[in-house]
Amino acid sequence: MSVSAPTTNLLGLSRPELERFVATLGSKPFRARQLMHWVYKRAEPSFERMTDLAKSFRAQLCAQATVQVPEIISEHRSADGTRKWLLRADGSQAFEMVYIPEPDRATLCISSQVGCALDCAFCATARQGFNRNLTTAEIVGQVWLANRLLAGTVADLARERAVTNVVLMGMGEPLANLRNVAPALDIFLDDYAFDLSRRRVTLSTSGLVPQIYRLAERSNVALAVSLHAPDDALRNELVPINRIHPIAELLQACWHYIDERNGRSVTFEYVMLEGVNDAPAQARALARLLANRPAKVNLIPFNPFPGTHLRRSPPPVIHRFRDELLRAGVLATVRRTRGDDIDAACGQLAGRVIDRVTARLGSRTSGIGALA
Ligand code: SAH
Fold first, then answer.
1. Which protein residue's CA is at the shortest distance from atom 24 of ligand 1?
2. Residue 62 sits in the same domain as residue 84
3. 183-203 pLDDT per residue, tens
């Protein structure tokens, strides 16, 4: 009986880790960079085809390494060009990624967890519960896969990259999985890997305050924060993590992040819910929170999903809300809804999740306590 060594998925390794891995095979660090060129710039998954690597090194890689991406279960295309893929995690677990082409960029919205434990009132993913964190390789694998699928026969992805921007706004709370997300961010920014500018990688969080401080020590990607309410009473209902980390604490962490890491601005996401958070007085209260701060607000028209009683604010209400913010000196934009005909819009992502939080704790609200 032959015992084969376990294989290492190279997509889960940051550059220093890959250098250590090739060192264990007896190779010099520059071999890691050569390997990254093939894997990331050329989207080449087969070691045999990496023709400028020594044959013996290729044979070692074939035996001990893989470039393995999540398997595609299905694909949907929207009339507006948005594409959504359902990907397999394992067994009956699935998660989604969404590709959003625009004239000047192409954004990939990726997932960080299978399901989510945070139970935000307006989000379809919350209804599914939480199953597990995605691995670094599964997070990186989404971008790799999209580039490969979309670039088709493009030989040099460095020149004609399919994905120009990555947003961690798919399923899951990225900061609840910072251990696996942080190395993925390194790989997105690494010149030898995806080589994306830090302005083109955005992490969106519901507001896990301690992890925002940890992120500030670790990365300098753009930060988006799901605020959704101008006061604690309402935010406690919409984004229950607020009961643990209220607005004042959250904003403090945001200002710390930009002071430490990029000196630019934080984007606050604000989902527009009819009759709930869309009154002009609420816009003025929001403006008071953000006045004279490096902040901008992105208003997201609510995307409905089966079983919700919430409704999207009508366009004139959204525009009035935006104008109140602008009048008070707060930069505000309205996010264009994309891919809603295939349930690919914000908050509509719902893979197939076997909820382990509800099973374990009896209610998802207690799941939030368990996370904090
Ligand atoms: N957990 C992270 C990232 C995932 S959600 C976070 O909370 O930020 C990405 C954005 O979509 C968040 O701002 C989220 O609040 C918003 N969103 C969730 N459900 C939505 C819905 N049904 N309609 C519009 N936006 C929604």
1. 302
2. no
3. 999 999 999 999 999 999 999
Beta bridge partners of 202: 167, 222
Annotation marks residue 346 as catalytic: yes
Q: Per residue in 55-109, pLDDT tens? A: 999 999 999 999 999 999 999 998 888 999 999 988 778 999 999 988 889 999 9
Burial class (CB in 10 A: 0-12, 13-18, 19+), 64: middle
Name the domain boundary from 47, 66, 85.
66
3-class secondary structure, 265? coil
Neighbouring residues of 167: CB distance < 8 A, sequence distance ≥ 6 = 107, 108, 109, 110, 201, 202, 204, 224
- What pTM value is reported for the model? 0.91
Which residue's CA is the nearest one to ligand 1's atom 26? 347
Same domain (yes/no): 174, 276: yes
Tally of structural domains, the chain:
2
Identify whether 33 is part of a domain: yes
Which amino acid appears at position 222 of this protein? A
